[in-house]
Amino acid sequence: MNIYVCVKQVPDTETKIIPTADGSFIETSSIKWIMNPYDEFAVEQALLVQAANAGSTVTVVRVGSSKDTEALRTAMAMGADDAFLVEAPDNLDSYMIAKALKGAIEKSGKTPDLLLTGKQAIDDDCLQVPQILATMMNIPSVSVVVGYEGSATDITVKREVEGGTLEVYGVKLPAMIACNKGINTPRYASLPGIMKAKKKPLTTLSLTDVGVSDDDKRVKYSNFQLPPEKPAGKKFDATDAAKQAAVVKEVVGLLRTEAKVI
Amino acid sequence: MAKILVFTELHGSHVKGVTLEILGRLAGHTVDVAAIGAIPSEAIADLAKYGAANVHSLKGSNLDKYSPEGYANALKGFIAGGSYDYVFAGATSVGKDLLPRVATMFDAGMASEVTNFIMEGDKFAGTRPLFAGKCFAKVELTGPKPHFVTVRPNALGLNASPTAGAAAAKDDAVDAGAIRAMIKDIVKGASEKLDLTEANIIISGGRAMKDAANFKVLEDMANVIGATVGASRAAVDSGFAPHAMQVGQTGKTVAPSLYIACGISGAIQHLAGMRTSKVIVAINTDPDAPIFTKADYGIVGDLFTIVPIMTQEFKNLLGK
Which SS3 state, helix, strand or coil, does residue B315 take? Predict the structure, then answer.
C-alpha cells in the first residue's frame, strides 16, 4: 500500500503566544516547534498499517516553513520512509494547505491507497484540511477517529462524536482518516531511528511547484490579540473547617445574585 | 441584504440551540434554514420566532444516518439552487466534519468555529480563537461564494428580542449520491448529558481527584445543577477519566456560562481550553495555583470537603 501522512509543525503546547506588534500573526522567533500532537497518532497508525501489509511505504508530507524540519525528521525517525516539504509561510489558510498537500502527493509519483492525518492542528484549530483534501481528491473521509482495523482495501473505523458516542464506519479505500487521541499509542523515535532518519530522502518543493498561488487564498486573518484579561476575582480561604460552610454558602449565593448563572 | 442559509441539526423535536443563536444575529437579512430529514412543527415555531424566512426539510434515500459524503452531496445540491451568499452551521460534530467538504465543492472558503461575528452590510467579519484560545484574531472570507462559517455553541448567546420570520415550511428532494464511508453501527456513550462543547455548566476534576471512582462527587453535584462533568489532561493521562472528557488544548475547548474547576492547578493548555467560560469557580488546596488568576470565585480548600457542602447548598437554593 502507498500510505501518506500529512503532518503540521506547531508551537509546543506550553508556548506562551504573543501577537506581533502589527497584529498580523504571532511572534515565531523564540517558539519551540513540535509535530502537531494529533499527527503523531497518524504517523503511528501509518506504521501499524505498513507492518500489517508487506511491501507498503509510508510517505510524510508537510506544508510550512523550512526553518525547522522537526516534524518531518520526527516522523522519519519513528519509521516513515521518505518526506516531502512544501516551503510556505506557517500561516496559510486550510484551503491553500490542502491544495499544496494534494499537489505534493501528485508530485511524489505514487497513487495513495490511504491518507492519514491528525483530526486538527493545535495552532489554528480549524479541523478543515482532512475534509478539504479528501474532497479535492474525490475520496471519502472520516474525522475524529479513535479506532481502526481492516485490510488493504476495506477498513472499519470508529468516529467519536458528542457525549463519547462512537459511529462505526465501513470505508472503501482509498480514504482520508483523521486521527484522534485513543486510536493507538505513538512510539518514541529510537536513537538508531533518529540516526537513520538523517539519511532518508526529504524532497523540498515550492508553492509554485504544487500549483498554489495567492489566488487560492480564501481566509484572511488580522488583529491577532491576546484575550482580554479578566479583572481579579474574589478569593476565599476555606482551609479552616469551621469556615467552610459559610464560605461555600456565600459563593453559591454570589453565583445567583452577582454572577446570575444559577 | 445578504441571502443566508443556516444548516441545522435536530435534537428531538427541536433544532440545536446554536441555530437559534445564529439566527438571532442575522436579523435584517434573508435567512433560510435547512436540515436533513423532516423538521418537526415545534422546531419550525422556534425558527419562526428567530426570523427564518423559509424552512427546508431535505429528503432523500440513504440520509437516515450521517455520512460525510451523503450529507455533503445532498446539501451541495440544495445550496446550488439557492444563490446564497453565506452558509452558517453550528460547530458540532456534524457541522465541523460536513461544512469543509461542502465548501470545497464550491471551491469556497470557510471560517471555523467563530465565537462572535457581525455583518458589516453584506460582509461577514468574525472573531475566532486560535491556539486553543491563547489568542484571538479577526477572520474574513474571500474568493468564490457562498462563504461558509461554523459558530461555536453557547458563544453568541440568544437574541433577547428577536425579529420573527414567516418560516414557510418546504420539502426538497435531494440526492445523497455515492457513499464510500457509511455508518454501520452506533455505540452510545455512557453519558446521556449534553456534550462538553454544548454544556451550559461544566464541573471539571484534575489530578487531585486521585481516582476515577472519586469523580462521583462531581457527578452528584452535576446532577443537582444540570452540569456535564469534564477533566483536566493530568486527570485523563492518569487514567481517571476518558479523553472524551478532556478540556484543554489537546481536548475540548469549551464556553459554558459556569465552569467549576475542582483540584485543577491550571496548566496553560487547560486555561486555554476553558478561559472563555463566562464565570469560573476554582476549588484548590494550593492558594498559589494558576487557576485562581482566571477564577471569578476562588475557594482555597480541599475539594473532597468543599464539593459535598456545595452540592447541598445548590440543593437548598434550587429547592431540591
Answer: helix
The reported pTM is: 0.92
Amino acid at B211: D
**How many CB atoms lie under 10 A from the CB of residue B208?**
21
pLDDT, tens digit (0-9, with 9 covering 90-100), for B188-206: 886 677 889 989 999 999 9
| Nearest-CB residue to B299 (from A37, A171, A247) | A247
Where in chain A are the domains?
Answer: 2-216, 230-262
Cell of B237: 493521562
* CA nearest neighbour of A93 among A215, A194, A219: A219
- CB-side exposure of B310: number of CA atoms within 13 Å? 31
The x, y and z cell numbers of residue A235, run together, are 478569593
Do the Cβ atoms of A175 and B300 come within 8 Å?
no
pLDDT per residue as tens digits for the range A20-63:
999 999 999 889 999 999 999 999 999 999 999 999 999 999 99
Q: Residue A41 in contact with residue A118, Cβ under 8 Å?
A: yes
Contacts of B318 in chain A (CB under 8 A): 262
Residue B53 CB neighbours (<10 A): 17
Tell me the CATH class for A2-216. alpha beta
CA distance B150 to B87: 9
Cβ pair A142:B198 closer than 8 A:
no
C-alpha of A204 from chain center: 21
Specify the CATH class of B201-318 in words: alpha beta
Q: Write down the domain spans for chain B.
A: 3-173, 201-318
B143: exposed, middle or buried (C-beta count within 10 Å: 0-12, 13-18, 19+)? middle
Topology of the domain covering B3-173: Rossmann fold (3.40.50)
